[in-house]
Amino acid sequence: MFFIAGTKGETSTAGTGRFNCPTCQCETDYHHEQVHEKATLFFIPIANLQLLGEYIECQECFDTYETDALSGENENESYIHLAIKRIMTLMMLADGKIDEEEKATIKNIMEVITDDTFSDGELEEEIQFCKDNPDNPEDFLKTMFPHMNEQGRELTYKCCYYVSESDNEIADSERKLLKSVAKILQLSNAHVKGIETEIQESK
User: In which residue ranges of the chain is pLDDT below 70?
Assistant: First the structure.
């Protein structure tokens, strides 16, 4: 008899309450979520192995934050906004060239998800940061995964796809990165296909 064993990240709620959400700019309900690595047998989680990470999730905007947000000391951007900004920039750089269409797409997406302006200077700073700190996109996402909820993971992939096809051509290096992003974010092939189909049909 063959056994299919592996591991996966699974989220559980450790607590709830009220906090001042940096995105909503008001008091909202929150969930304190923890992501554990679980051993699986036949794809069914059977035991906790270790705590991978945790985050505070606003129940209004569903952005996620460091646990410091509960004390009102968190001045950082949400985990989801950071992950999307960084991985979109890394996606743009994946084929070794920077297209104006891709830059415009990143700016538009950041302004939509943050409901704030995202200047050329901010984008150039992010590009320079990625060049000065050539982080492997896969390694970066692995560190971010335990701090992102399902909505954030789906939105991250969607934004990556928008950038990859914004110049009307998805390079092999970009397609390869998209597959890695989907795998790390634990998005099934059917989920990915649904996202890409939705984007194509919306044009």
Answer: 1-8, 38-49, 73-76
Residue 72 C-alpha from the chain's centroid: 23
Query: Of the candidates 121, 133, 42, 116, which has an alpha carbon nearest to the alpha carbon of residue 81?
Result: 116
**Residue spans per domain, the chain:** 5-71, 79-201
Domain 79-201 indexed as CATH 3.10.560.10: no
Q: How far is it, in rounded angstroms, from Cα 198 to Cα 146?
A: 26
* Kind plus residue range of the DSSP H or E element containing 97: none
* Amino acid letter, 74: N
- The type of residue at 122 is E
Query: Is the dihedral angle over the CA atoms 114, 152, 30, 53 positive or is it negative?
Result: negative
Q: Which ranges of 115-188 would DSSP assign to H, the alpha helix?
A: 120-132, 137-144, 150-164, 172-184
Residues in the chain, overall count: 203
Taking the model in full, what pTM does it have?
0.81
Tens of pLDDT, residues 132-152: 887 788 889 999 999 999 999
